[in-house]
């Protein structure tokens, strides 16, 4: 059996990450459903290992020591993106949309617990098949899986992957149709065309950076240093909270420190951090984290759980679609933009922000621009929901463990 050390495992993960991008480009169905390239690459390795286990062979053993730091780096990047400026840009609409998403995340967990009990499974199985992997997606699922393993959910990583992947597909399938139904049912139309008609707002809103000449290498280095600083300070905070007996994911401290540094910088301009550099570092960390985590996935742990997972996904999909029809449509204005927001809401509450943007884009190509929807939905789905969802998940873990 070949044993790879941590650097070799990371290199192997990078290789299969590139394979994932290549496969996604050549298989249109994967692109259509916005399946992440790291998931494709990592899953190819996991399927190979599953086949080898069937033959009674273990060809390679991975050292996933880099998995934890990469995961923390990604969520630290989420913290650095949590700018109060973004809330002021969208104002009440973003806060309301975030509140609705958080309420649904709680409902997803309660429904998941009820379904788990119906099948004689631990209540926390319902949480990991609830907001952890639906509102959270594969990254949150993989991040929380070790914690759920510790509290008694056997095969949590495999369950998280299966549920997250199915959610991504369902979010892509249901996102556009539910909005189309609402548009036709209530005869909703985009606002009167203006000079900007036909041009969508950017998919993700970021704070405006000052126009000045900055050495990209220096900007990237400074962003990396501040991210490492936030991770270091955050480790102390997370350790202190753990000693107080509070069960929290290891990235919480770093994510909070990142958010604090970002908002200090927005207010006082002390650090001059580059939003683009932070997003790039976070994106790379996420991709490598996912592919390394999935390479070491034990898919055979899913044996016997197919029916509970399928039944849960059916009722969770009904819950999300019903929530979009009411109260989301009503509270977000019962207009065309609100219907497009419902599409994005379905996308990221079942799958990922990529699903949300893809669904909304297909609608605006057909019916017309929805600038308010593209301002609100991606901001909430990209990172704000991760903050509230982490708090919600932690509350359920501490309450039900």
UniProtKB/TrEMBL annotation:
Primary location class: membrane
UniProt KW keywords: Amino-acid transport, Cell inner membrane, Cell membrane, Ion transport, Membrane, Sodium, Sodium transport, Symport, Transmembrane, Transmembrane helix, Transport
Subcellular location: Cell inner membrane
InterPro entries found in the cross-reference section: GltS
Lipid bilayer topology: Multi-pass membrane protein
Record field: transmembrane: 6-23, 35-56, 68-87, 94-118, 124-148, 160-183, 217-237, 244-261, 281-300, 307-329, 341-361, 373-397
HAMAP family the record matches: GltS (MF_02062)
NCBIfam families: gltS
Function as written in the Swiss-Prot or TrEMBL entry: Catalyzes the sodium-dependent transport of glutamate.
Family designation: Belongs to the glutamate:Na(+) symporter (ESS) (TC 2.A.27) family.
Name of the protein described by the UniProt record: Sodium/glutamate symporter
Gene name of this polypeptide: gltS
């Amino acid at each position: 059996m070949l044993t790879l050390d941590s650097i070799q495992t990371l290199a192997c993960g990078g290789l299969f990450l590139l394979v994932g991008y290549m496969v996604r480009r050549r298989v249109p169905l994967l692109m259509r459903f916005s399946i992440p390239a790291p998931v494709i690459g990592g899953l190819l390795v996991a399927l190979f290992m599953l086949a080898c286990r069937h033959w009674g062979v273990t060809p390679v053993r991975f050292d996933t020591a880099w998995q934890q730091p990469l995961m923390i780096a990604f969520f630290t990047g989420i913290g650095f993106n949590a700018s109060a400026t973004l809330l002021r840009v969208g104002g009440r609409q973003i806060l309301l949309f975030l509140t609705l998403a958080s309420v649904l995340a709680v409902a997803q967990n309660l429904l998941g617990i009820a379904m788990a009990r119906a099948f004689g499974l631990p209540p926390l199985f319902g949480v990991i098949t609830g907001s952890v992997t639906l509102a959270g997606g594969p990254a949150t699922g993989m991040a929380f899986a070790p914690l759920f393993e510790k509290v008694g959910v056997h095969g949590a990583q495999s369950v998280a992957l299966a549920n997250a992947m199915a959610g991504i597909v369902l979010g892509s399938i249901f996102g556009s149709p539910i909005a189309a139904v609402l548009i036709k049912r209530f005869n909703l139309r985009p606002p009167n065309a203006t000079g900007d008609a036909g041009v969508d707002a950017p998919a993700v809103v970021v704070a405006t950076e000052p126009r000045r000449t900055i050495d990209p290498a220096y900007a990237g280095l400074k962003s990396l240093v501040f991210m490492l600083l936030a991770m270091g300070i955050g480790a102390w905070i997370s350790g202190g909270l753990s000693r107080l007996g509070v069960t929290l994911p290891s990235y919480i401290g770093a994510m909070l420190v990142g958010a604090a540094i970002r908002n200090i910088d927005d207010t006082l301009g002390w650090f001059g951090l580059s939003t683009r550099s932070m997003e790039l570092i976070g994106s790379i960390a996420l991709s490598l984290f996912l592919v390394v985590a999935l390479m070491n996935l034990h898919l055979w742990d899913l044996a016997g759980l197919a029916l509970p997972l399928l039944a849960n996904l059916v009722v969770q999909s009904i819950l999300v679609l019903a929530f979009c029809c009411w109260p989301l449509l009503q509270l977000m204005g019962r207009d065309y933009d609100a219907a497009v927001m419902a599409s994005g809401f379905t996308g990221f509450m079942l799958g990922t922000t990529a699903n949300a943007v893809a669904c909304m884009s297909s609608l605006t190509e057909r019916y017309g621009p929805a600038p308010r929807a593209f301002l609100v939905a991606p901001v909430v789905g990209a990172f704000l929901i991760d903050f509230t969802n982490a708090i919600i998940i932690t509350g359920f873990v501490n309450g039900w463990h």
